[in-house]
Amino acid sequence: MNSTSKNIFLFVAALVIVGVVFATINVNPTKRVDISTIIQDVQNGTIKSITVNGASIKATLNNGTKVDSTKESTESLSTVLKNYGVDAKKMRNIKVDVTEGTGWNYWLGVILPNVLPLLLIFALIWFFLRQMQGQNNKAMMFGQSGAREIQKDAKDKVTFNDVAGVATAKEELTEIVEFLKNPNKFTALGAKIPKGVLLMGSPGTGKTLLARAVAGEANVPFFHISGSEFVEMFVGVGASRVRDLFAKAKKSAPCIIFIDEIDAVGRQRGSGLGGSHDEREQTLNQILVEMDGFEPNNGVIVMAATNRPDVLDPALLRPGRFDRRVVLDPPDINDREQILKIHAKNKPLAKDVSIRILAERTPGFTGADLMNLMNEGAILAARKNIKEIPMHLLLESIEKVLLGPERRSHVMNEDERKVTAYHETGHALVAHLLPHADPIQKVSIISRGRAAGYTLKMPTEDRLMRSKSDYIDDIAVMLGGYAAEQEIFHDITTGASSDMQQATQLARNMVTQWGMSDKLGPRTYGQHGDMIFLGREIHENRDYSDNKAVVIDEEIDKLISDGLITAKKLITNHRDAMDRVADKLLVQETLERREFTDTIGLPPANPKNLMQPNT
Ligand code: ADP
Ligand code: MG
Ligand code: ZN
C-alpha cells in the first residue's frame, strides 16, 4: 500500500509539472487579437511579418508590436485571407513564415488533451487493481508451498546428539549426511544416492526430530512441510504447492525437503479410503512427477515420514522415489535411558533420581512419551515450589502420561468405591497368581483419565516375542475385574467394558493373526496392512469363508470363557486374600508393589516376580 500511494503521488506530480511546462510555453507576452483584426491590419498594410504555425498566427506590426491570433488549423493563411477578400498584392510586402506544426509544443497541444483523460483512467484502473491485489494477497499466495525453511547454521539446530536410540536408523542416515556434505566424493565414483528416504515408525518415535537432525548434521537448508498442508480448500493448490516447494529447493541445493505425515496425501489412490479425493490425488501425482523430474545427484533429497506405511500408494515406494526406507523402532531400556538423559539436560534433578529406574519403569514409552514424562515432572515440581525435581514426582508423572491425570475431584460414593476396590483387586490377584502374567507395580482406586481405578502391570524386561501362554494369562488378568464383580456382587458394572474390549481384541489377534488356535491352524485370517504394529488397523480384507468365520468366533469365545473361568476360580479360592487387599485399598486408595505382596500374603506364581527391584 505504501508504495502504491507513493506511485500515485509521483504520477500526479509528473502531470502537474507537464501541465506547468505546457502552460509556460503557451504563455505569450503578446497581445491577443481575433483573426479579423489581423486581416484588417493586412488590408491597412501595417503588418511587417507573419509567422504561421498550425492554427496559431503571430504577427509583428510595423511599429514592433506583436499580436497573436488563431485561425482554423485546416485552412491555410492564404485561403483565409482570400476568403476575406484581401488583395493578394497587399501580401507581397509582408514576410510570411510558415512553420508546419511539428514542434513538440504543437504535438503536445494536439495530443495531450486527448491522451490526458485516457492516462487518468488507466491510472485509476491500475490503482484499484493494485489495491484489490493487496487485499487478496493471501489468495494469490495459495500456490506457494508455505514450507517452513530452516536455514543452515540455524540457532536451534538439531543434530544426531539430540536423538537417542534408533541406532540403525541413524546409521542408515549417516550415508545421506555424508552425501549432502560432500556430493563429489560419491558422484566421482558414479554412485547414485537415493532421492527419497521414508522414515517409518509409530507416533512419537522421533521421525520429525531425526529428519531435522539429518539437515543439522549435514548443515544444509531444510524445507519442512506437513502432508496435510498441501491440501487446502481450493482445487489445484496442492499440486502447485508441490511445484513451488521443489522449485525453491532446487535453487538452494544441496538441501532436504521433508514431507511430514506423508500419508495425508500419499494414500493409495482410488482405494476409497477416506473417499476418493481428487485434490489429494493430484497432489500426489505432482510429488511423483517432481521426484522423477530431477536427477538423483543434483543434491536435493526428499525425506518423508509416516506411521502408516501400509496405506501409502505403491507408486511412492517404487524404486527411484522413496526407495530407501528407514524404520524407527520403539526405544528399548537403554534407549529410554539415553532419551531421558537428553530431556533431563536443563532440568535440575534431585539426588534421589535414578534415570535407570525410570527407564525400567517405562517399557512401551516412545521418545515423545519420555519427553512428556520429564516435562510433567518439572511442572509438578514447579507447582509444589520444589527447586529440584524429586524421584517420586517423576514416578507420578509416569502414571500421568500413561493414564491421564488423577481425578481426585471425582467423588465416588461408598458403593462405587467398594466395587472399584474389588474390581482392581481382581485384576491384581489374578496377575499375582498366574505364572506368565506381568508383575503388579501398583493398584489404585483413584480415578485416572476415564478409568475408575487402575492396576499397573509392568513387564520386567522389553520383550520382542511373547508366547501363547503369556496371552492366555493376560486374558485371564484382563477379565479379573469382571470376574470379581460377578463373584462378589453378583452384578456387573460398566467399569469392565474396556477390559472386555481389550480381551476380545487380544483373543481375536491370537486366533486370526498369530496362529495360536489349534482348530484354525497356522494361517492368518483377514488381510491387514502389512505393518499392524505401527498403527491401528482400519480396514480388514476378508479372505476366508463364512464357515471359517464361525470357527473364528467359536475360538475367540473359547479363549475368553477359559480366561474367565481361570479368573473366577482364583478369586473364589482366595476370597480372604481378596478381602484383605480390597479393605486396605478402601483405606489408603493406593498400594505400591511391596505393600500389595505383603497384604495378599500369597507367594507369586512366578518367583522371578519377587526379585524385581521395588522402588
Ligand atoms: P514423530 O514425528 O515420530 O511423531 P517427533 O519427532 O515429533 O515424533 O517426536 C516428538 C518429540 O519427542 C521430539 O521433539 C523429541 O523431543 C522427543 N523424542 C522422540 N524421539 C526421541 C529420541 N529418539 N531422542 C530424543 N528425543 C526424542
Ligand atoms: Mg512427526
Ligand atoms: Zn478393569
Any overview of this molecule?
This protein has 615 residues and is an alpha/beta fold. The protein has four domains: 103 residues, 2-Layer Sandwich (Signal recognition particle alu RNA binding heterodimer, srp9/1); 181 residues, Rossmann fold; 70 residues, Helicase, Ruva Protein, domain 3; 198 residues, Methane Monooxygenase Hydroxylase, Chain G, domain 1 (Up-down Bundle). Strands 6-8-9-10-7-11 form a six-stranded mixed sheet, sandwiched between helices. About 2% of the residues have low confidence. It binds adenosine-5'-diphosphate, magnesium ion (MG) and zinc ion (ZN). Adenosine-5'-diphosphate binds next to helix 9, helix 15 and helix 17.
Structure keywords:
615 residues, alpha/beta, Signal recognition particle alu RNA binding heterodimer, srp9/1, Rossmann fold, Helicase, Ruva Protein, domain 3, 4 domains, six-stranded mixed beta sheet, 25 helices, binds adenosine-5'-diphosphate, binds magnesium ion
Low-confidence stretches at least 5 residues in length (pLDDT < 50)?
Answer: 271-276, 529-537
- Count of structural domains: 4
Strand order of the largest sheet: 6-8-9-10-7-11
Strand fraction equals 5-15%
CATH architecture descriptor of the largest domain: Up-down Bundle
Q: What's the CATH topology name of the largest domain?
A: Methane Monooxygenase Hydroxylase, Chain G, domain 1
Q: How many angstroms separate the termini?
A: 67 Å
Oligomer: single chain
Shape: elongated
Total number of beta strands? 14
Q: For the record, what CATH class of the largest domain applies?
A: Mainly Alpha
Name the ligand types: adenosine-5'-diphosphate, magnesium ion, zinc ion
Q: Helical stretch count?
A: 25
The profile of the biggest β sheet is:
6 strands, mixed
Structural class: alpha/beta
**Assigned CATH superfamily of the largest domain:** Peptidase M41
Radius of gyration: 44 Å
Helix proportion? 40-55%
